[in-house]
Amino acid sequence: MNSIKGKTGVLLINLGTPDSPSVGNVRSYLSQFLNDPRVIDIPWLLRKMLVNLIIVPFRAPKSAKIYKELWTDQGSPLLYYSERVQSMLDTELGDDFTVHLAMRYKNPSIPSVLEEMRKLNYQKIIVVTMFPQYASASTGSALEAVMDEIKRWWVIPDVKFISQYYDHPLFIDAILDRARKYNLDEYDHVLFSYHGLPVRQVDKVYDNGVCEGHDCESTITEENQYCYKATCYATTRLLTEKLGLDKSRYTVCFQSRLDKNWLEPFSDKVVEQKAKEGAKKILIFSPAFTADCLETIIEIGDEYQEIFEEHGGEKVQLVESLNDHPLWVDCLKDLILNR
């Protein structure tokens, strides 16, 4: 019997990026992103009015300027590194697998990539998001988009979803290896800065509708295992234990908030506070981002540097994201083969 090359299709999904830093492309990206009901989880009409009449028209020109600062000769860093990981993982997995890449927002789009995969008649499809900690606004949205497409297929093969891996040993080791170039003793404080979420979104994880009281800062239980806040703290505990960091030397915080009702403490406020307390050098990890992007390179690297200097600090040092680190590729390989 002849074997089928690439009988298992792997779909990697990252968040997405504008096609270019032009105002038009940034506007299109923001519109698709912010109209997602899992991202802005408010009633439909209110979301449409807020996003399309207020947020996008005013934010697109400002965001386009920031994306121009982010853009490199290779284009968007997030897309570039995602494509590098796709290629490396495809090589590592060998002939029985073919790895595809899609973005939740913009291109390559989930519908177009899944249509390519449908035509290849895979026996099995494994879907892995590039978000280590589960959140409805990221992982949930990406997996829902995949299911919305596959449910229309006449022939549906075996499909497997990998929802999170915040505690995978290779994921942790890859971050630790990134940190080895920095001497922690040279820094007055260390921040573990995760992308923020509205408090109401983590509240929805629980049957009683409230995250508070589930001990998310110190333990993982059956109740909070899919709580974004709990898994962020769990990732931090695993990292700090191996780094030998005392609790007094680091802070878990959340960035990129839209209003005050988001997870706290806010990263920019912690940066400001540490400067006012006399810190001169701080080191910032960003363990929710597997590829460097606007939130790491610009928000942490540039904006937080300005805040820190303004209040007496000297240097904010970003620990680079996993990008195309070999251990990150090994982590994905292990998830696909063994989880």
UniProtKB/TrEMBL annotation:
GO terms for cellular component: cytoplasm. Transmembrane segments: none annotated. The keyword Repeat does not apply. Pfam families: Ferrochelatase (PF00762). InterPro entries: Ferrochelatase (IPR001015), Ferrochelatase_C (IPR033644), Ferrochelatase_N (IPR033659). GO terms for biological process: heme biosynthetic process. It catalyses: Fe-coproporphyrin III + 2 H(+) = coproporphyrin III + Fe(2+); heme b + 2 H(+) = protoporphyrin IX + Fe(2+). HAMAP family: Ferrochelatase (MF_00323). Catalyzes the ferrous insertion into protoporphyrin IX. Keywords: Cytoplasm, Heme biosynthesis, Iron, Lyase, Metal-binding, Porphyrin biosynthesis. Its main location: cytoplasm. This is Ferrochelatase. GO terms for molecular function: ferrochelatase activity; metal ion binding.
